[in-house]
Amino acid sequence: MSRGGGALRRLAVHEGRWMASLTRWVTRRRYGTAPGERALPYGAAQAALVYGLAFVCAVETVGLHVLLGGFPVARTVLLLADVYTVLMVLGFQAAAVTRPHVLGADELRLREGARTEVRIPVERIVSVRYDLRFTREPAKGRGAAAGGVAELAVGGQTSVTVELAGPVEVVRLLGRCERVRTVRFHADDARGAVAAVRARMREREGEGERERTVSEGPGRGVVRPG
Fold first, then answer.
1. Are 156 and 135 in contact (CB under 8 A)?
2. Which end of the chain is more exposed for a tag (fewer CB within 10 A), N or C?
3. E strands, 15-114, where?
4. Side by side, which strands form the sheet with 177-185?
5. Predicted local distance difference test score (pLDDT) of residue 158
6. 113: nearest Cα among 126, 97, 131
């Protein structure tokens, strides 16, 4: 498949995801959160902006519908386009709500709505800390990686920084792949997210110690008289 065809396919998949997110949002269901896993929501920081934009789009739709009363074809076309725009804006928020970050037994899955998902093995995490930052280089785009750092910003900010022992791959919406050793993301309860990840890191370290003890076996290193 050509590069352009691959990008179109990814855009089509992304559109299907945010449309499905609208249904999950209405039915209050989350995507990709299994029993025993902890969801780390992040959509609250952008909610006011998204709802405000959706309201403006809805008002514009009504206004144009009235103004173009004498042009039925143009009114119908613009009505369909405006309704799609409102749904897309709401789908942006729905994807953020129904696709939260997820802390599982073995990995931390970080998401950016329906656009990006980063899978980080817990054993590869060196440190995690509360670190409130505001993105200052919009020319690079949201989530741009520079110097091995990826940002999954929400509302122009990140609040948690994860340092890794080895690189992980970040695949962007149009297929661009980046390898990073630091990931910054936002969580509504950033300090709670940090505490949860640290607790899981300690659990993994304890499990590793028990596995090493079992593998060595009882009596290892004991000298028996001959």
1. yes
2. C
3. 38-40, 101-103, 107-112
4. 125-134, 157-171, 177-185, 149-152
5. 96
6. 97
Sign, Cα dihedral of 113, 154, 164, 203: negative
Count of residues in the chain: 226
d(CA 36, CA 104): 7
Pull the structure tokens for residue 169: 């791959």
Question: For 43, how many CA atoms within 13 A lie in the half-sphere containing its CB?
Answer: 20
Burial of 85 from C-beta contacts in 10 A (0-12 / 13-18 / 19+): middle
| Cα-only R_g, the chain | 23
Backbone angles phi, psi at 23, to 5 degrees: -65, -45
**CA 210, 216, 217: angle at the middle one, nearest 5?**
90
What is the C-alpha to C-alpha distance for residues 163 and 181, in angstroms, rounded to an integer? Answer: 6
Q: What is the pLDDT of residues 126-159, one digit of tens each?
A: 999 999 998 765 434 444 455 589 999 998 899 9
- Tokens (6 digits) for 50: 């998204």
Report CA dihedral (87, 49, 116, 196) to the nearest 10 degrees.
Answer: -130
Asked if 170 contacts 145 with a C-beta cutoff of 8 angstroms, the reply is yes
> Residue 179: enclosing H or E segment and its boundaries?
strand 177-185
Contact 65, 83 (CB under 8 A): no
Provide the total of helices (H) and of strands (E) in the chain, helices listed first: 4, 8
What is the pLDDT, as a whole number, of residue 216?
63
The H-assigned helical ranges of 159-221 are 190-216
